[in-house]
C-alpha cells in the first residue's frame, strides 16, 4: 500500500517538468517547449531550426512522451533536483550542439560580410590623390595667430562712421566737435598701443622661449621641405609613368592594388604586377585565399543516440561560395588598375588567380583589353529567385554578377576549386620582352596591330581572335608599303602552315573584296603552301615565316623579338 499509484506518479512527474520549464527560459525552453514542434517555434529551414526538435529526433519521432524528457532545468544550474541524470546530460549536449551551430553561423555571416565589402567601389589611387600639402602649425605657447605680432595700424583705431547721417559731407563732419573728440581719443589710443608694442619688442626675450621658438621654426621648415621633396619625387614618378617606364608603372599599379587590399584587412590577397612595354600590358598575379575560408558545415544536430553530428554542406554550394569570393577579388583588382591608369598607358591587363598551397594552381585567368576594364563595376546586389525545379546555391552562383562579368570578359574559371581543377594562365609574368608564343591572346593581337599599323595599314579591324592567332583586315594608303585593302592572318602555332590554310585565306580575300592577303606565322610553311602561292590564282597571297616576323618587329618596333619560346 506504500507504493504510489502509477497514475499519481506520472502526474507528479509531469508537474515537476512543467515547473522546470517555468523556472528557466532561453535556449532549451524555447527549443523543447515551442508551439510548433521546431526549435523555438521557428519555421522549418529557419536559422534556429538547423537540427530540428531534439526531443522528436532523440525519441525516434514519437514527440515528447509521458516519461522523462529534456526540460530546460536539466542543464546544470537549472534548479530541478528531481530530474534524471541522463536527461540532464542530454540537455547539456543539446546546448553544446546549439553553440557549435552558432559558431558555424558566425563563419557564414563573416563570409557574407566579405562578399558585400568586396563589391564596394574602389577608390582611385592616382597621382593627384597621393599629393601632400603643408599646413604650418603656430607656436603652441605663443599668440594664437599672426595678428598679435603685427604692429598696430591707424586704420584699426579710426572712429566708425555715424549711421544716423549717411548723407553728411566729409567737410561737415570735420567741423563736428563730437567727432573731433572721438578722433583725438583714437589718436591717443593708437599712440599708446604703438609705444607699448615697440617697448615689448625692444625688451630682451626669454632665452628658453627663444630657443623653443627657434626649434619650432626649424621643425616647421623640415616638415615643409619633406612635403616638397615627396611631391617632387611623385612628380618624377608621374613623368616616368607617362613615358611607360616599367618600374614606374609597376610601382603605381602595386600601390593601387595594396590600397584596394587594405579595404579588407581580414582577407589578405596580395597582388603583384609586371608591366610589358612590348604590348603595354600588365600581368597581375593574385594570391587567392585558402579554400578553408568557406565553411564546410551547415551546422550540427543531435543524432538518435544523443551524439553531436555535423551537417556538411553540399560540395557544389561550397564551391559556388568560393567562386563568388575569388571573382570579386579579381574584379576588385581590375577596377583598381583601371582607376589608377588615368593616362591610358595600359592597352590591356592579364590577371591570374593562384592558389599557392600546397602547390601553385591557377584557378582563374582573365585577358581583358582597355575597353573591357571599364565594364568591371559591380551593380547593387540583386535578389535572385530560384525556381523549384532548380534548387541549390550553385544554380544561383552561376547568376552571380561577379562571375557573369568575368565570363563576359572571356575569363576561364576553375569548374571545381576544391578538386584543384586548374585552368591554363592566359600569360605568365616573366621577361619584359617575352617570346611571341608566351603572349596572351590580347597581347598577341596588340603586337600584330602595332606591327601593321606602323607599317602603313589603317582601319584595323579584328574579325577573329583565339589562342593560336587572329584574322584581321586593314587598308593602306596608295604609295605605302602595303597599299590597298588587306586580309591578315597571324598565327603562332608550332605546326607548319599548309596549303589548305592558304586556300582559306584566299577565300577570305575574295569575301572581303580585298586586294591582297598576308599570312604571318611564328613557324614556317609546307612545301605545298610555298608552291601554291607561285601559281596565278594565289599570287595575291603573301607569306611571312618566323624570320619575317622578326624582321617586321625590328623594322617597325625596334625590338629584337623572339618568335619562339626559349
From TrEMBL:
Residues 33-85, 133-170 are annotated as: Disordered. Residues 439-552 form the Restriction endonuclease type IV Mrr domain. Residues 65-74 have a biased composition (Low complexity). It comes from the Bacteria. Pfam families: Mrr_cat (PF04471). Residues 147-156 have a biased composition (Basic and acidic residues). PANTHER family: MRR RESTRICTION SYSTEM PROTEIN (PTHR30015), TYPE IV METHYL-DIRECTED RESTRICTION ENZYME ECOKMRR (PTHR30015:SF7). This is Restriction endonuclease type IV Mrr domain-containing protein.
